[in-house]
Amino acid sequence: MTSEAPARVAENPGDIRIAGRRVLLAPHNCFACGTLNTHGLQLALHAADDECWTELVLDSRFEGWQGIAHGGIVSTILDEVMAWALVEHDLWGLTARMNIEFKKPVPIGAPIRGEGRVVSARRRVVEAEGVLRDAAGNILATSTATYVAATDDRKAELKARYELAFTDEATASAALGTPGGAP
């Protein structure tokens, strides 16, 4: 986990990795992972072995009650890590249904980790589950979700629109013109 609160929510906004390879996407406005949304979470996501995870520290702009993250933000983090777990399987999907159990308040200003994984995939229906933990590993929230996978044509459109590419760190740094590959 992150040892201190970063200046921004994500350490490397837009830094998405799958199976150790960096995912390159055109800049986009997604509230959860987009680099263009200055009000968003800008999550740094990682995926491997059917799972996706992110580690972050929420600042006060995501507060509900004082010192506690808004439930919608908690839901967004869980939805994003579950949805990106699908991408490792070359599935792109829309959330059809999502259930969340809030176990403990999610603190503002403290390290948390969101994890999502694919539970099953059949035809175009994908089931996933997620968990949000604090730095000690305590469960703060859990979630299950059903995603409807995009058709092959729609998936091709999305890949083209977002300019999806996979690359290693050295290639990413050169392509983005930044040290370490951070956008």
Q: How would you concisely characterize the structure shown here?
A:
With 183 residues, the chain is of the alpha+beta class.
Helical residues, percent: 10-25%
Q: Specify the biggest β-sheet.
A: 9 strands, mixed
Number of discrete helical segments: 3
β-strand number: 9
Rounded radius of gyration (Å): 16 Å
Low-pLDDT regions: 1-13, 170-183
How far the N terminus sits from the C terminus, by CA atoms, comes to 22 Å
The CATH class is identified as Alpha Beta
Which class do the helix and strand fractions yield?
alpha+beta
What best-fitting shape do the alpha-carbon axes yield?
globular
Fraction in beta strands: 25-35%
Q: How does this model look, in words?
A:
The protein is of the alpha+beta class and 183 residues long. It has one domain (16-181): Hotdog Thioesterase (Thiol Ester Dehydrase, Chain A, Roll), CATH 3.10.129. The chain is 19% helix and 35% strand. The protein has three helices and nine strands, in the order ββββαββββαβα. It has helices at residues 71-87, 152-161, 169-176, and strands spanning 16-18, 21-24, 45-48, 51-57, 93-102, 111-122, 125-134, 139-149, 165-167. Strands 5-8-7-6-4-3-1-2-9 form a nine-stranded mixed β-sheet. The longest helix is centred in the middle third of the chain and has 17 residues, at 71-87. The chain is globular and about 45 Å long. The two termini are 22 Å apart. Mean pLDDT is 81; it is low at 1-13 and 170-183.
